[in-house]
User: Fold these one by one.
Assistant:
Number 1:
Amino acid sequence: MKELILLKSGEIALKGLNRASFEDMLIKNAKYSLSDLGRFKFYKAQSALYCEPTEEGQDLDEVMVRLSRVFGFAGLSRALIVEKDFDAIRAAAPNYLRETLMAARTFKVQAKRSDKKFPFNSPHICRELGGDLLEHFPHLKVDVENPQVTVTVEVRDFAAYIHTDQQPGAGGIPVGSGGRAALLVSGGIDSPVAGYMMAKRGLKIIGVHFASPPYTSDRALLKVEKLCEITSDYLGRVRLHVVPFTRIQEEIKDKCPEDYFTLVMRRYMMKIATIIAQSEDCGALVTGESLGQVASQTVQALACTDESAGLPVLRPVIGMDKEEIIRIARHIDTFETSILPYEDCCTVFTPRHPRTKPKLADLLAVEQKLDEEALIREAVEGTVLKTLYRK
C-alpha cells in the first residue's frame, strides 16, 4: 500500500502563462516546509500537484499539517495510489478505508475521471464501488446529500487515487511570488496577523522590531522572537531586524510636546523601517494598524505617519475589529503569545492626551527640535539581525 498527498492549487490555476512559475515557487516552498521530514518527490499534472514520499515510514500525518500551512494550496488529500484498473480499485478500497467507514453511518462515492481512456465513466465507478463498500460495511447507508464520509476516486494521468474528504489548504498564492515587504512587529496581537495576511498574498515578510531597554525587557524581545517562530509555519524563515530605539524615545520625551510623543515615534519607526526595508530589497512596509483602535490610528494620524515612509504602507487589518483580528490570531496560534503581559516600545512614554487630529506642518515643526539624521543613523547602525523559524 503506497500513499501520497494530492494537492489542489486553487487560485494559481488562473495565472495563465505565469502559472508554471507560480507552481515552481509553490513546490519550492512546500519542499522547504518538509525539509526536516525526509525526501519527497513533487510532480504536477493538470490542476493537481503530487507529493510522494520516497522512503518507508515517513510521517504523512505531519506532512499533511505542514502542507496545510503552505500558501497556494486550496485543498489537500492523503490518498492511496492504485493501478488504473477497476478491479484493483475495488480490491484496495475496503481495506484502505476500513477505519474511516467503520466509524461512519452514512457515505457516498464520488468519482473524477480526468483520464478519459479509463473504460468506466464516473457514474459507473460510483455505482459499482458504492455497492462493493455496502457489502463490506453493511451498517452503512448511502446519503448523497449530507454524507458523513465522501469516498473519492480520482482517475488521473499517473494512477488512480482513493481518498476521503479533502482538507482545506491555506489558500492564497505562494510566499515570495509577490515580492518582499518589511513588517513592523511590536509583539501585540495585530502585527503577526498583518504579516500572515500579506504573506498569503505572496509577499515574503521581513520583520522589524523596535526595542527600548531598560523600558522594555528581554522577555518582551523573546516574545517577539517567539511570534516570528510561530508565524514561520506560514511565512518561512523570518529575518528579524531588532532596532535599538531607547535613545530616540528619550530624545522625543525630552524635546517634544507630550501630545506629539506617539506621532513622532511612529514617524521615526517608518523612516528607520524604510531604510532597513530597502536594504532587504522590499517594496513596501506592512503594519498591524486598525482604524480607530488607538489614538495614533486616526485617519489624520495615519496620513502624517505615511508622509514619513519612503515606501507604500500596507495595512491589511485596517478595517477589522478586534474580534476579527483575534479570530485569525487564534487560527495561526499567535494569540496566546501575543497577550503575554510584557511592555513593548509603543507603550513607553505614552502621552496622557495624545493628539488625534494632527496637522503635518505642526508635526514637522515639532520634529525640528531633534537631530534626526544622527538619531536614525545610530539606530540603523545598532540594529541586530536574527533569523527565526520554528524548530
Number 2:
Amino acid sequence: MKFLVALAAGTAVAGSALAQTAPGPALKQVRDRGALVCGVGTGLAGFGIPDAQGNWSGLDVDYCRAIAAAIFDDPSKVRFVPLTAQSRFTALQSGEVDVLIRNSTWTMSRDTALGISFLATNYYDGQGFMAKKSLGVTSALKLDGATVCVQQGTTTELNLADFFRRSNLKYTPVTFATNDETRNAYESGRCDAFTTDVSGLYAERLKLSQPDDHIVLPEVISKEPLASSVRANGDQQWANIVKWTHYAMINAEELGVTKANLAQQLTSANPEIRRMLGVEGKFGEGIGLTNDWAARIVKHIGNYGESFERNVGQGSRLKIGRGVNALWSNGGLQYAPPIR
C-alpha cells in the first residue's frame, strides 16, 4: 500500500511538471515579435552562409529554423544576424540575439564567466591545418618556423599556441578579424598554413581559386564541441526549448522518423515515437509549446541526420563523413536524453 501511495504521489508530481507552463520572458518576446533572432556566422559553407538572394543555409541555420518551427510551425520566422568571432558573445549578452548558433566552441571559461550558458553540441569538431601542396608538407609537425594565418579572439588562436609549444616548434601567427580575411591572406601567400576547425578548412578550401592545390593535414590538435548558447539569466524555459529542439532532431534520427515518413510515424505503436510526436503525453506543454513541437521540427527541417547530410555530408559539396558526429548507437557521440 505504501508503495502505491508513493507511486500515486510521484505520478501527481510528474503530472504537475508536465502541465502547461506560461511563456517565460524570452519565449514571450519571440512570440510578440513574431520571429526568432538567431546569431550565426558571417558566412561559412555548410554551417551558415547566405546565397546571392540572401537566403541562408547550413547546419546552424537549420537549427535556428527548427526552433522557429517548434514555436511558430513556420521555419521562415527567423531573422539571421551575422556575427564575427569578436562580436558574437556581446550580441548575445546584450540581447541583440535570442540565441547564438554559430560555430562556437563550448569551453569552461565561456560557460562560466561570460553570463551565457552553452546547451547542446550540434557538431563535434577539432582544429586542423591546411597548407599548399607545393610546400611538400604532409604533417603539421613539419611546420617548424612557419607563418600561420589564424582568426583573432578564438579558441583556435589559443590552441595554435598550445600545439606549437608542446611540440617544441617555432611559428609566427598572422591574425585577422574574420574568416574571409584569414583565407584571403593565406591564398595571397602571407602565410604558409591556415588553421581553423577541420570542418571550416574544408569549407574555406572550396572558396580558393584552385582548391585541389591545397591539402588538409592529418593532425587534429583540439576538441571543438560547437554548441548553441543563450543568456544565463534564469530563463530555464528558453534554455529548454533551445536544447530540446536539438535533442528532438537526434531522437528523430535514432527512431527513424524523417520528413518523408512523418505522417506514417504519427500512427506508430512505438511509445517512444508517440511521445516524441505528441500523440501521447504533454511534453510540449511542459516547455511552453504545443505537444506537436517535435513533429513540427521534423515536418519542416527533418531529423539531425537529414540536416547533416544535406549541409555538410555526402549530399553537400563538403562531403564530410559522420565520424564522431554519428549517433551513439553507430559509434558516434551524438546522444539525446529520452522524451518521457
Number 3:
Amino acid sequence: MDLKLTPEMEAFRDEVRGFLQTHEDRYAPNAGDERPREAALEWQALLIDHGYAARTIPREYGGYGAEPDILKSRIITEEFTAAGAPRGFANQGISMLVPTLLEVGSEEQKKRWIAPTLRGEVVWCQGYSEPGAGSDLASLQTKATEDGDDFLISGSKIWTSTAAQADMIFCLVRTEPQAPKHDGISYVLFPMKTPGIEVRPLKTMTGSAEFNEVFFTDVRVPQSAVVGGRGRGWFVANATLKHERGMLGDPNATEARLHSLIELMKTERVDGVRLIDDPVMCDRLMQLQARVLTMKFNGLRLLTASMTGESAGMAGLVVKLQGCELNHQIAALAIDALGELGVLYEDGPYLRSKGSWQRSYMFDLGLIIGGGTAQIQKNIISERGLGMPREPKLASV
C-alpha cells in the first residue's frame, strides 16, 4: 500500500482541517448510554452533509455517496483524532445493522431504515444472546409462530445493551423449530414499543445498567419484517457479527484512548517525577503503543481488502480479540498510573477524567466476552485462520 500523499491529498487534508476549525464550536460527542441529544444530532447531520460520516453509503439511502478511498479515510481519521473532534455516532444501528441491510436487506428496508438510523433518529438494539444461547448462539429458543401474515414472538433475550433506549430491535427468532439448529432461524426488525415486550435492566459492577433482559410474550410482528429471507437468519446474523467485531476492534478508537493515556502519564507524578518518565511505566506504555500501531496498520490492510473485494483472511479474524483485550490493558495501565486514586469511582475532588478510566477498566471486561468471547475468537482464529483441527465436542451422556 502506498501511503504517500499527493498534492490532491494534501489539499484534501487542508479541507478537513478547515472544516474542523470552522465548526469547532459545534463539536458534540456521543451521548453514551442515553439517547442522542439535539446538539449531537445536529453534529451528525453536519458530518454526513460534508462526507465525514456515512461517507461511502449511497446517497439514495441517506449517506454522502463517496467512492471508497483509503488515503482520504486515513486523512479524515488523523485530522479528527488530532483535533479531538467527535466522529459522529458509532452505535449498533450504524455500525452493525446498516452494513447488514446494505448487504442483504430488501430495497424497501434499505430506504425505510438506513437514513434515519444514520442521522441518529432511530436507535437500535440487538436481540441475539439468550440465557441458554450465548457462545452457542444457534441454540436460541425464542420462537416466532405464524399467525396469518404475522409472527407471534415469545421468549427472552439477555445482555441486550441500549434496550431501554432503543426504538427498534434486530432480533433472531426460531421460525422453523423442526429444522436443524443453524437453520430455521429468521432475522426480524420490530419496534420496542410493540405490546408484549418487557425490558428489565441488569446492573453491572460499573454501578450502571448497561445491559438488559428483554422478555417477549406474543409480540405481533409482520412477516415482511424478516431480513434476508425466512429461515436464513443464521447467514444474516453472521453478516452482522462480522461488522460487530469490526466495531469492537476499531483501531482509531483504541489509538485515541492511547493518546488519552499518554496525556494522563504526562500529568500524574510520583515524588515529582512524571509517570511517563518512569522507566517501568514507560516500558509498559511503549509495549501498548506498539500493539496499537500494529492494529492501526492491520486496519489499513482490511480497508485495502474491502476496496479490492478480496477476503481479509487472518487480518479480519484477529480484530475483535486484539482490540478488546488491548483496550482493557490500556485502561489497566491508566489505573496503575493513578495509584491510590485509581480506586476512586464516585464523584470527588481527586477523581480524574470523571472516573472514565475506572469505568472503562470494568466495562471493557464485558466487551471481551460480548460479540463472541476471547475463547471463541481464539477458536475461530485457530480453526479458520490457521487451519488447525476443530475443537472436540463434548461427549453426550
Number 4:
Amino acid sequence: MVPDAKFASYYGRNIVKPAPWGHEIPTYLFLGGLAAGSALVAAGGEMTGRRELQRNGRLVALGALGGSTIALVSDLGKPSRFYNMMRTVKLTSPMSVGSWILAGFGAFTGVAAFSEVMKEVLPNEGRDLPMAWFWPYGDRLASIGAGFFSAPLAAYTAVLLSDTATPTWHAAYRELPFVFVGSALAAAGGAAMATTGTAETAPARRMAIGGALLESAAMALLERQIGVPGETLHEGRAGRLLTAAKALTAGGAALTLVAGRWRPAAALAGAALLAGSAATRFGVFEAGIESAKDPRYTVIPQKQRLAARRAQAALDAVSDATGLPTAAALAREAHHDPHGSTMKGQA
C-alpha cells in the first residue's frame, strides 16, 4: 500500500521563512492599537468637555505610544535603525508608511499630553501666562491631529502582517484590519473605564462595546473565509490565546453593557477588554508564525488556487466552443448591469 503523502520541503527547510520576531512585535501591535484608540477617547473628551476623560485618554495614549516605540526599537536592535526608517518615504511599503503614521501620531499626542501635564503643574492651570488665550486652540488642534492619525495607526499593523508571505496573515488580509481596529477600540474603551469615573465614560463604554462587536464579527468572518491556514488559529498556543481573547472580550463587553455605570464593575470590564485585546494580538501573531513552519499551509492554498484557475479556464473554453455564457460570465454581466437590460436583450 502506498503511504499517505506528507508535505515537506527541499532539504527539510521551510518554504516560507518564519518571521524572526520575538514578543516585542505583538507587544508593539497591542500598545500601538491602545494608543490609537485612547487618542480618539481623548479627542472625544476634549470636544465634549469631559475633562477627566480627556486627561486620562491623552496620558494613556502617550504611555502606550512610548511602550510601543520601545518595543519596536528593541526588535530592531538599536535606535539608529528606527531613525533610518524615517529617512525615506516609500508609499508601496507598509513599514515605511507606518513609520510616518507613527511619527505624525506621536507628534500630536506628545503635544496633547504635554498640555495636560502643564495644566497640572502651572498655577491656575496656566491661565495667567502670556498668550494663554491660544492654549484652547492648540489643545483642539492636538486632538484633531492625533485623531486623524488614529485610524491609520490602528489598522496599518494588520496591513503590515498581511503584506508578508506568512500563510495565515496573508490569507487574512481582508478581515485582519477590521479585527485590529475593533480590538484597538475595545482596549481604549476599557482603559478609559478603568481609569476614569463613570460620570464621564458613557462614550468610552459605547466605544468598548462597539469595538468588541466589530472585533468578534470580523474574527468570526476571518475564521470562516481563511481556509486551510486558519487551522493555526485553533491549535496550540495561538488557539489558547484566541479562545481566551474571545471569552475576555465578550465578557468585558457584556459586563460593560449590564453594569458599566458601577465603578468596580467598569474597572473589571475594562481590565477584561484590555487583556482580550492583548490576547488577540499575541494569538494572531503566534498563528502566523506556526503557519510559516508547516509547508502544508503554503502548498495547499497554492494548489487550490491553481485548481480554481484551471477549472475557470476549462469553463471559459467550453463557453467559447458552444457560445453559451458561463455562470461566472452571467454573474459579471449582472454585476455591471444590475437592472438586467443585457439579459433582456439576449432574450
